[in-house]
Amino acid sequence: MSGSVSAVSSNGTYSFTKPNRQSITLLAGLGVEGDVHAGVTVKHRFRMRKDPSRPNLRQVHLLHEELFTEVREAGFEVAAGQLGENVTTRGIDLLGLPVGTLLRLGDEAVVEVTGLRNPCAQIDTFRKGLMKQVVGRDADGRAHFRAGIMSVVLSGGTVRPGDAITVVLPDGPHRPLEIV
């Protein structure tokens, strides 16, 4: 399984959206160089209030570009970086990957998938009604989160739009993604 990077984004200050960049540098064990969410321990403001010593399982946020087409059909215009992701992907079913999947981004960088992004109320502040598009319900009524996945950086490197993404699934049995 493979795909590509369609955009990269980062922001050094807390803001819901992240500006697109020509490249980002991933740092092993930390995240995106210069990004507010980079660090060994949790950097998400809500999670820091609860326990700032927890490990940062949300170093790099990846989101599938295909989501933009889906929400556009429902009347919402969303572009790369606007939902706070660091890496926008094309051609990979991110939400179907199991925990522990390795993603090689470009020539050097490798991230390990840790879980799902928990969509927050800021999504509706950004575009009123968008939350219903990124949090659906399955046939049994369980929430289905579609706002991307989170990962940690195993090997650093530069990531650019157009870079290939190679998927390496972990040995089974596979664990489905849960919110981290």
From TrEMBL:
Q: Please list the GO terms describing molecular function.
A: catalytic activity; molybdenum ion binding; pyridoxal phosphate binding
Q: Which SUPFAM superfamilies match?
A: PK beta-barrel domain-like (SSF50800)
The UniProt entry, under Gene3D superfamilies, shows: PK beta-barrel domain-like
Stored InterPro entries: MoCF_Sase_C, MOSC_domain, Pyrv_Knase-like_insert_dom_sf
Its domain of life reads Bacteria
Q: Which residues form the MOSC domain?
A: 18-168
List the PANTHER family hit by this protein, alphabetically.
METAL-SULFUR CLUSTER BIOSYNTHESIS PROTEINS YUAD-RELATED, MOSC DOMAIN-CONTAINING PROTEIN
Q: What is this protein called?
A: Molybdenum cofactor biosysynthesis protein
**Organism (species):** Streptomyces resistomycificus
